[in-house]
Amino acid sequence: MKQQAKKKNIFSGKGIFIVLMVITSLLVITVAMNLVLPEEIAEQAAMETESSHSSATYSKQYDDGLTSVYTEQAVAANSNAAPATPAPTPQISIAPAPHLLRPVSGSGISKDFSADELVFSETMQDWRVHEGIDFPADEGAEVIAAADGVVELAGEDGMMGICVLLSHPDGTMTYYANLQETDLPQPGAEIHKGEVIGKVGNTAGAEVAEPSHLHFEIRKGEERLNPHDHLADTVTDDE
After folding, report:
1. Domain count of the fold of the chain
2. 123 neighbors 111 (Cβ within 8 angstroms)
3. Could you tell me which of 29, 20, 17, 227 has the C-alpha nearest to residue 131?
4. Which of the chain's ends, N or C, has fewer CB atoms near its CB within 10 Å?
5. Does any domain span residue 41?
């Protein structure tokens, strides 16, 4: 009888209350887990997606050679890959020196350019360098500007007689010697390519014994350039 009474007490009001409390606690825990876990899972998925996107973005930038910014993901993604080939450096195109006009009509030369080797001077009766080209021409033949320029000198220049010196935009100068005293341009005048700047004379004391000619030089600073490298027509003393 006592055992039956104990069994009945389990299902008394107090016992039922305890059972309900346990069930309620379990339900609360279950609901809370269902609410929290999806949020954590979603947050973790978002972080993984962002990391994957960042890694892919920087990996693409690295592969394209567009940036030198690296992330751990990018380095890891490319650790076994060959280095990206840098974009080629654009090549600067350098235009060749402008072709100069032959300053007097005719062909051939009477004395060639020789800045590194001594040649014999009929006038001075010695061996010396010849820093220009002598173009054979009759006295009075017109001399033209080989290129556009500005007159720096027009007049007497020591042993080279009457001369005209033109400066050009590329930093070079052309020098025309052994001219007549007449028909010279004014210093400072702008001269166009092909314009007449004087006439062949016989005023160069250093070359007075040579056949009638125009002495022509190309200068850059103190250097004398080889006219053959700049003239439009190649000329030699064999022509």
Report:
1. 2
2. no
3. 227
4. N
5. yes
